[in-house]
Amino acid sequence: MLSRVAANLYWLSRYMERSDGVLRMLKINYASSQDALTEFSWASVINIYSNISEDRLKQIEYKGRQVLDYMLFQKDNPCSILSLISMARENARSVQDHITNDLWQCLNEYYLLMRDPALIRSLKKDDPISVLDLLIKQIMLYYGTAEVTMARGESRSFMSIGKYLERSIQSADLLHVKFGSLDHNPDLLTNASYWKHLLQSLGGYELYLKTFRQGFEVENILDQVVLNVDFPRSVIYSINNISKHFEKLKSDHYINDNRELSFMIGRLQSRIKYSSVSSISAEGLGFLSSVKNELYQIGNAFHKNYFSHA
Amino acid sequence: MAEVSDFLEKYVPDLGVWDEMLCEKKQIRSSYANVINYLVKEAEDLNKKEELAKRLFMSQGITFTVYDSGEGIEKIFPFDMIPRIITATEWDFIERGIKQRLKALNLFLKDVYHNRFILDDGVIPREMIYSCPHYIREMYQLPVPKDIYVHIAGIDLIRDHDGTFYVLEDNLRTPSGVSYMLENREITKRLFPDLLPQCRVRSVTEYPEILYKNLVALSPRQISNPTVILLSPGIYNSAYFEHTTLARLMGVELVEGRDLVMDNHKVYMKTTKGLQQVDVIYRRVDDEYLDPLVFNPGSVLGVAGIMSAYRQGNVAIVNAVGNGVADDKAIYSYVPEMIRYYLNEEPLLKNVPTYKLENADEREYVFKNIDTMVVKKTNGSGGYGMLMGQSATQQEIEEYKLEILKDPRQFIAQPTINLSAAPCYFNGKLNPRRIDLRPFALCGPDGITIVPGGLTRVALKEGSLVVNSSQGGGSKDTWVLAE
Hints:
Chain A is an all-alpha fold.
């Protein structure tokens, strides 16, 4: 496969995964803004997913619909859903011969939907949750189409690596931000809705309730979001999948072995696997930063070794 | 149920124009009868079908992007859903005519880049060749695989008032539009279920397989699985949709210049496994941009050094480099002579009479009769830079004349040919609009194949004779009927 094609597939998949993360985050936060008694600040959400200027942030921080408009439809925000879907579609367009026609059409229709003036109007005056649900459904359609139609070959493996790398970075990032805020505001530690939102943004709330029956404990949240191998948004689940697809690429002889990259993935996998809740708690934020750092390095190594044969 | 007469109420054929649907007595030709009956039965649903067609083009991304104030807008090429129908007899003639013409053009290209017998024998004046900007000196004495220069041709045909076919242009460089031939057919299948087999329409789906087989046969390395690639200028090219479609249908890699590197006069593509040697390149990049070392030094669309690999015979390039010398609009006027010279046959397909403006007598004649002429640039395309004497203002004509006098070799003139008309659907009724025809011919080691069909372009503006998509033209599905 051409290096450019592999890189485009990998990034296509990362853009879609990021869109999914952004949309879920927006939905949960909008819902909780409707419960808020005091003015609801969107600053933390916006800061995770975009690099907005201070001034602009101050203008819209407390204005839910304007935040949604900025995060969904603004072209000048490179992390808005419109920007992400446009880039995903552009990548898909340039690798149309490597994805199924169904998947291409799915992405193309998503793009056309994002440009639909009726949708933009609807966000201004109707129920924003309906708009967000519609966009989340489109991503589900994308995942389903990819799952059902794509051959289990090289293209899909590169897409999977992109998907799980992006997902693990997001989960680690979210934990990092949430735990980071504790330093300034220790009261949050016992704030049930604070932890509930974290789990809801990751789609893990129901699983948590079933697994842990005695309310929100930081240890239990770490257990689920970092260590639970069956939770599809846990850090370890994503890393196991990166490893699986990397090994498949090698064993099917689509790529040559790269010992350095194998080593990096294996090391991170073992590091998390052989951590415990108590060891993570002891390390604190340092653990999350170093996991994030290693994930970035893995991403760079893919670029260096497979995407940029110069 | 609607009546046929109702449906055709607004259908008034222009005088002196060949009508594809109606014969002189205003009767529907037998080739169109089935379709018209079907349409009359479905009359109430036709607007819905038109919507469906638009939706299908849009959601499949059969679009091109127009950039307007930084904003990319997706547009579809206008599609008229009423098929253009060619009878078995007409097709048989077209097929024989195109094969004859291509055979001669291929021999001409080989001759002009090698022995130049045709110049020595004075059939074509030498100045004609050497003044042509598309004559590529680097091709002199360069052998091409199997002596084939034109692997893919899109020869444009038009019909005069009596239905005679004329060749308007030989597109021998990188003719485009074949994906629309294929997609228009797919859409028609969805719009008019069961109608195609009922009318006994011949299939066009084989095109990618034939092309692929021909490409593989050109591989310089005698290996079982040579690497064939399609070289595209990239996603901003207006024909990008066509490039992806062809790559997908042939199962070959779609490559851009930046994916290729040269090593020791061989072409390689950069893959996830390292470098992989390339054997055959179906390029959709013009000669001028192919190799910055030889042609336009500013080009980033091609690959530096690719011409040397070509010269060494390490890679096959399709179509061959330098074909422009054979489809130059001034050389065009010599094609009937070429057919007589190389094949010793009378040409089947006629040429439109062409006046070369560098010739003082012809120029004077054209200037006198300019209101019945179309003046074109010899290396122009896309309908740009031409003058339609019929509709131009006096001032436009005077300005154009000055332009011509600056460099008369770059211009030719042809009498205005009344393109034939075919029915198009406009809001519940049929109206006649002017059309042309571009069948796609493939030359391989086993001979020339023309899939029964082609791209019918249509001038959607009433009375307009310009069918180019860049100037408000659309397209139709083209049906060739079985005997």
